[in-house]
Design goal:
- The structure is a single chain.
- The protein is α/β, with parallel strands linked by helices and about 525 residues long.
- It has 19 helices and 20 strands.
- Strands 1, 2, 3, 4, 5, 17, 18, 19 and 20 form a 9-stranded mixed beta sheet that branches. Strands 6-7-8-9-10-11-12-16 form an 8-stranded parallel beta sheet. Strands 13-15-14 form a 3-stranded antiparallel beta sheet, with no helix packed on it.
- Its EC number is 3.5.1.-.
- It comes from Streptomyces tabacisoli.
């Protein structure tokens, strides 16, 4: 054998009781699980003592924004050090494939706040398959990909707020089908982000029919997480029921003051649908604040036509005043139908270094320092940062976070944005925070249950036949951690601090983290769905 981890506490990903065993790896697979008293113990060229540690399957980040970070940062300790062995990219309806030259330029600008402008990346792909081929050259952790519906609409329709023509809808169907044939696991949407939010349910349903034909799943960031959130969740349940498509709800939170205590209402809605036969799962991060871009707070009509049109409206005093009215008084669809609270909007990063003094302060604080109204400050940031500023939005509720993470269809997703001077700590801390804070310290879930939420359940959603469990013959994507000390190092004050208590991480049996330090191993590759529609 290549490696044996001796006498470790095996938390196998099923949610069942842990047990003691030696676990041997060979040729990238789990070769033997040997319990005490079962005969000769396995031997190997290398041995690790797991006496005081727990061994689990590698963690699967069901909602990641590492689309370019995996290419620019071979180290990628933000995820590798957490024990993440697989990330799902292409989230919130916006990513970098499929594209043509025009669409690529537009999407790079529109999500620069998430991933940087890409000036350091060689965009030598246009299709989903070519992007996955690029990942296969070697990355820090494995990655699966969702076809981004907003990018697809940008490609086929543009930035107009209108119905797609029959020809445009056919074009979008082809793009989605091609992406699925090339290895994507499903389709995502960002229905509070332009231009994906301009798609009506009938259009989304037709695209979901294509996803269903390939046995993929639909992962929407739905139309509201604030006012009308329950109706927005219900809309997605009904849409996928009509399309016959599996549904995975992205960062399924219940935020803003209007939803305090309503996590249980969301779960009741989902339980009813599941009892009626719906195939539903969801992911969350174990924190109350959210994170996105400042421009995302604007009403959808302000973003129609793309970034240049948005900037032109912001420069025009009359249009800017109309935007302010929608954001501050009416409640824009970009801010989930809730009037914005500037004292809860913290600037987490800017692409323009000259604006660095705004980072770490709320818009209200920066406005007070300058003796101006918050909208004047926000408008300046949007214009001078070319829409690239990122924010933390402090609008969540702890009781909702805990209620939702207990649900049987729950999985873990960091929603980690790695850009910015002061990113959300979830990017560096989600998985150890689940294990340490919520499982060990608070007992919201048992450690065994928590591991199942982070491993086998997401693997089942992704339909991966050999990941997510500690089983003989399964891939040796494994995490060896200390249940007594594992914890997120990242905080809102120091968000890039790495976790503690995770000394070893393996991908295909290769050490990615060794004695708590990142190795130079690039064992990650694309993880692709089986080609061909399920009906064939």
């Amino acid at each position: 054998m290549d490696l044996v981890i001796k006498n470790t506490r095996v938390i196998d990903g099923t949610g069942g009781a842990s047990y003691r065993a030696d676990v041997a790896m060979d040729n990238g697979r789990i070769a033997e699980i040997h319990r005490p008293g079962e005969g000769p113990r396995p031997t190997a060229t290398r041995t690790l003592d797991g006496q005081d540690l727990a061994l689990s399957p590698g963690f699967i980040d069901m909602h990641a924004h590492s689309d370019l970070a995996l290419l620019r940062d071979p180290d990628h300790s933000a995820k590798a050090a957490q024990g993440v062995t697989l990330e799902v990219l292409g989230q919130d309806g916006l990513s970098y494939a499929p594209v043509d030259d025009r669409t690529l330029a537009e999407v790079r600008r529109s999500i620069a706040g998430w991933n940087g402008d890409g000036s350091d990346i060689d965009f030598d792909w246009r299709t989903v398959g070519e992007y996955l081929d690029r990942l296969d050259r070697g990355i820090a952790v494995n990655a699966a990909y969702l076809i981004p519906q907003g990018t697809v609409r940008m490609y086929a329709v543009g930035w107009d707020d209108r119905d797609a023509t029959d020809a445009e809808l056919d074009h979008m169907r082809r793009l989605v089908a091609e992406g699925l044939e090339q290895g994507a696991v499903g389709m995502s949407s960002g229905l509070t982000y332009t231009p994906g939010m301009y798609a009506k349910d009938a259009e989304l349903t037709e695209l979901c029919r294509t996803v269903a034909a390939y046995d993929g799943y639909y992962c929407p960031h739905h139309r509201s997480y604030g006012a009308g959130a329950l109706d927005a969740y219900r809309e997605m349940v009904e849409l996928t029921r009509t399309a016959g498509c599996a549904l995975h709800l992205a960062h399924a939170t219940m935020n803003f003051g209007v939803n305090k205590g309503k996590g249980v209402d969301l779960l009741a809605l989902l339980d009813e649908a599941i009892a009626a036969g719906a195939d539903i799962s969801l992911d969350t991060y174990p924190y109350t604040p959210g994170a996105t871009t400042l421009v995302a707070m604007l009403p959808s009509w302000a973003n129609e036509g793309g970034p240049d049109a948005t900037l032109a409206r912001l420069r025009d005093d009359a249009a800017s005043e109309r935007i302010r009215e929608h954001v501050e008084e009416i409640g824009s669809d970009g801010c989930h139908g809730v009037p914005i609270e500037w004292d809860r909007i913290e600037i987490s990063g800017t692409t323009n270094p000259a604006l660095a003094s705004y980072v770490g302060k709320t818009v209200a604080e920066s406005a007070a320092e300058r003796g101006e109204t918050p909208w004047v400050t926000a408008r300046r940031l949007l214009l001078e940062d070319s829409l690239g500023s990122t924010i933390l939005q402090h609008v969540g509720h702890e009781e909702n976070v805990r209620a939702i993470m207990r649900h049987p269809v729950h999985t873990g997703g960091s929603d980690g944005i790695l850009q910015g001077t002061k990113p959300h700590p979830r990017a560096y801390g989600t998985f150890p925070h689940y294990l340490g804070h919520y499982a060990r310290d608070l007992g919201v879930l048992s450690l065994e249950e928590t591991v199942a939420h982070l491993t086998s359940r997401p693997a089942a959603r992704l339909r991966l036949p050999d990941r997510g469990l500690i089983r003989e013959g399964y891939r040796a994507d494994l995490v060896l951690f200390d249940p007594e000390t594992v914890a997120a190092g990242s905080t809102f004050e120091s968000p890039r601090t790495l976790p503690v208590g995770i000394p070893h991480v393996f991908i295909d049996g290769k050490p990615v983290i060794e004695d708590g330090r990142r190795t130079d191993v690039l064992a990650g590759r694309s993880v692709r769905r089986t080609p061909g529609p399920s009906s064939v």
